[in-house]
Every structure is written in structure tokens, then in C-alpha cells.
Amino acid sequence: MRAPQSVRFPERVPARDVHREVCLHTMATNDMSPGARALLTKLDLFAKLDPQARRTLAGLLDRPQVSYERGQDLMTQGALRRDSYVILTGWAARSKTLPDGRRQILSFLTPGDAVGLFGAITPVATSSVTALSDLTAAPFAPTAIVRTIARSPQLAAALVWAAAREQEIMGEHLVSLGRRSARERVAHLFLELWARLKVRGLAGGDQLQVPLTQQIIADALGLSVVHVNRTLRQLAAEGLLAVKRESVALLDIRQLHQVTGFDEDYLMHHAMPQDLAAELARLVTHGPG
Amino acid sequence: MRAPQSVRFPERVPARDVHREVCLHTMATNDMSPGARALLTKLDLFAKLDPQARRTLAGLLDRPQVSYERGQDLMTQGALRRDSYVILTGWAARSKTLPDGRRQILSFLTPGDAVGLFGAITPVATSSVTALSDLTAAPFAPTAIVRTIARSPQLAAALVWAAAREQEIMGEHLVSLGRRSARERVAHLFLELWARLKVRGLAGGDQLQVPLTQQIIADALGLSVVHVNRTLRQLAAEGLLAVKRESVALLDIRQLHQVTGFDEDYLMHHAMPQDLAAELARLVTHGPG
DNA sequence: CGTCCGTTTGAGGTTTCTCAACGAGGGTGG
DNA sequence: CCACCCTCGTTGAGAAACCTCAAACGGACG
């Protein structure tokens, strides 16, 4: 058994101005809270939500937004659940910690992502969610999700889509940890984050702002910090990417794709398929009968 | 980059009589198809479904069951999706394969589990589902899930619970691949399977029937077959478990728990929490208004 | 009786880890 | 303003875990 390389998440470090802006689609969102808009931006990738769905969404997220500093927990493994959130600005990580301190990051959460969306289902949190940068979030009651599902079938379908998308990302993550080399894991992670951010307008060109320390990358990829460092430097030496303070430039995307066999289909950037849309439309017009 | 150790899944091998029986709870299930009963058995862990939910479930699964031989795909990565299924008897594995042949198993599917439950969302399958033993399954149309969600809020909540539970299992799997040693991974896998089967009445005592070859275990745990073999033999030598043909006996459960820090809470064997149940009941009685 | 699939074992190699130390930057307090 | 932390990144050296290759074994089945 190896000793834990994992280290506490950073705490009480002042803010940096990474990604404080949520990119909003040009819809009539004036009447909505920031939380509703952020979630809408994401769900909109899947389907244009109808007025009923948008009202329901607005009703769900009508509480004032809250702020967290880098290193604080929005949710703590083993503790009773409190609120659920939609992230407005900043990054967070969902992680699990073993009794001896080893830590594994399960997923990265970016603006528009939900924290504990289905959290009402277990009273005690099985993972922690920690702010990786200073962040703001829109809180909502965990049980409200049930009401939401019942009130708008379209919204329910969109939420299921969001859950399925998350599962796809976790699946690809599982492949990385189980079958990819350190080099492939690192390259794959950056390609994924780049693709995720780009589709929401949070990254442009080949540049990408990420508030990730090498320790955090290590905990996400199941590697030691030392080896992440060496891998990063090797990829940089080959001219594939350039790492600065808290940003990364993907210099040779074609070759990065080749290194990892990256195929962004699993991220599901696409709209609802035809048959599903038809089924939903029928329901919305004629009722569930 | 390591060469692929992964090997094709076994094919066309005759059936073995492992787990051909689904344990049914003692409810009035006479009017339901086998598929509906199997899924009900699982969803029942979460909440006693009301008549409306049970009617909807029966309507979803009214097609005749189908059979697959060991090694056949119920769903193939990269191919267009066909039906979704509820597994009735036998085991399956969901896996992803890299271009060079390396394979990672994402999850094991046992009776009552759904294949491609949310599959309508992507037209092309991002993973394969392969029969690990001969199996039978109840098919349903992928888009039917939308109707189901709209017709019964209780069923919708139960399905969300099932999805959340799956995500928890994947999360723990991620911890294994990222931060646990081979020894811990193997012990953890068996404890998980044992707990999952026991709660549905598919395993008794410390014995557990699993149609897993060492190659399959390796592909699930991100290890080589050779190392799985050595790890298995080491655990056996220490008297922690005994592996026979296709069954495993957990000889020292206390120490196995200690080896892995296993805590079965993440499997969510429990019923719906109080507040969620109350919320749902209100909806069912008063409507979503 | 031969073949096939899965398991087992040996030997040597590679990746990744641990331990340890140093450097660079930024914030903080004297 | 400078000295001192503290965090994070970087580098070296040796060790451990795990992998590959190769070969042999055993049971099941034709």
C-alpha cells in the first residue's frame, strides 16, 4: 500500500480573475435569475426549452446567489446534505477521499453545472464538492427537483440528458484511469476541458484558462504530482502544449488528438434526436395520458 | 504506450446455470411481464410504487423477452442504437474499447439492471454492452422512457434514483482505478458485487456466483490478467477468499473490509428519504400544479 | 485424443511512485 | 522595504508496483 501523495485542497487564497463570466445565449432571459440563466445556457444545448419549462426553472432557482472562496466545500463527504447548487462562475471539483488521505477527483464542475442535483436521494453526501477557484452559485432545495420533474416533462428530459452526459464523461474518465498512460491521460484531460469550455463560449482559440494545480490534476488522473509534472514538461518539450500559470495552450491539436485517440462525441454537444423530440412534443401538446 | 493486454470477449460458449433466477418480492406482480417484475424488484428498494407507476411500468415492458448467448453484444460501441433492455437473467458488462484494442469495463449489469435506459439521447452508442453469460432480457423502445417519466412522477423519481445509484457505483469504481492498489481493487470489487447481489437475494452466505474470467476482472480493474491472477492467488493464500471455477467465497469479510476500507453506503440500498417521499406524495395527490 | 479456453508461473523490463531537496513567486508581518 | 512563510513547481535518485513475453498446465468438449 502506497502512502498518500494527496494533499489538502488549497485554502483561503485570494481570488484570481479566471472565468468569472458566464456566457449567455441570446434568449429572452431578462426575467430569470442568474442561476436559471446559467443552467438554461447548458440545457439549451440539448433543446430549446418551452415557456412552461422556463417558468419552472425560474421557480426552482429564485434564491439569492452565494459565494465561496477557493478551497471551501460546497458539500462534504460524510456530512448531511444542505443545499444543491447551480454553479454560476468559477470551478469546483467533486472528489472522494479514502480513510488514509488518498483522494480521487471524480469530475470537474464548471459554470452551468449542477452540484448535488439528485442529492435528495441520499441524506448523507458520498463525495465532497470543493471550490477550485473563488466561485458563485445559485442554491436550491434538493427536494425541489421532484417538483421540477413533475411540472415540466421537457425539463425532466433535459435534466436526464444532463445526467446522461455526466455519466458519459465519467465513463471516458474511467477509461483514462484504467487503460491510458500518464501521457495520454494528461492530453485527454486538456482536450476534454477545452471542448467543454469552447461549446459554452468559455474558451477561445487554442487557449484555455484552468484553475488547476498539478496536485489537482494528479488527483483527477490517478497519478502522483511528480509524475504529472514530468509528463507536462515532456508534452511541452515536444511542442504539443504550453503551460503557464493557470492557463494552457494546445499547440498541436491534431497530434494531441492522435496521442489520445480523442473523440469528442461522448461529450454530447448535440441537440435532442428527432424521435425523442417528437415524443416529447406529443406529450407536451396532448398531456401524458 | 503499453501494448493491449485486452482480448476479445469469449464467444459461443454454452450456458452455465449461474443466476438464472430473479428473486421476486412478495407483491402482487401476477399481472406483470417478467421484465416489469425484474425492474420493479430493483426500484422497490427505493420506494413502494403506486398502482399508477406499476401500470406505466407494465406498459413500458410488454414485449416478449429475448435471449443472448455469452459473448454477444446487446449494444455495440459506434453502432446505431436499437432497443433498450431490462436484464432478466444473467450478467452483462458495459465497456469501451480504444482504437488499439485496449478495453475498459465501465460497469457490470445484473438482473434488474437496465441497458441503455437513457439511450434515446444519443443515436450512436458510445459503449458496448456484452453478455458475460447467456442471458435473457426484456426489450423496450428507447424513446418510451420519456412517456414513462411524464406519466408517473413516482416512477420518474425511482428512475432518477436508479441513475444516481449507478453514478455512485461508477464513482467508487473511479476511486479504485485511480487510487487503490491491485490488492485493494480486487477485494473491493468482490465486496461490491457481493453486497449488490445479496440485497436482491442473488447471493447467500459468503458465497457468490460470478461469471467473470480473470481477463474480464482485469479489464474492469485496469490491470493485466497476469497481475489479477497473482493478486487473486495472494488473497487466497492469506485465507481472505477462495476462488473456484465461477464462484468466489469471501472467507474473512472483516479483514476484506479492512483491506479496502469498504463502506457499502454508496450502494444506496435504502429507501427514499422522508422529505423526498413527502414531496412526492404531495405531487401524486394534488397534481404537479 | 486433440483442441481450445482460461489459469498459472517465471523472468526481465517499464512505468510510475516515494523521498528528498531546491527554486520561484506572492503575501504578510516586522 | 525586507525577511520570512507558504504554496506550487521542478529535478534527481532509488524503489515499488505492475506489465510484457513466454511457456506450461488443466479442464471441458468435440
Written account of the structure:
The structure is a homodimer of 289-residue chains. Chain A is globular, with a radius of gyration of 19 Å. Chain A contains nine helices and eleven strands. In chain A, the strands form three sheets. Chain A has a four-stranded antiparallel β-sheet with strand order 1-8-3-6, with helices on one face. In chain A, strands 2-7-4-5 form a four-stranded antiparallel β-sheet. With 289 residues, the first copy, chain A, is α+β, with helices and mostly antiparallel strands. Chain A is 40% helix and 16% strand. Chain A binds a DNA duplex (30 and 30 nucleotides) through residues 2-3, 5, 10, 13-14, 181-182, 213-215, 223-227, 229-230, 232-233, 245.
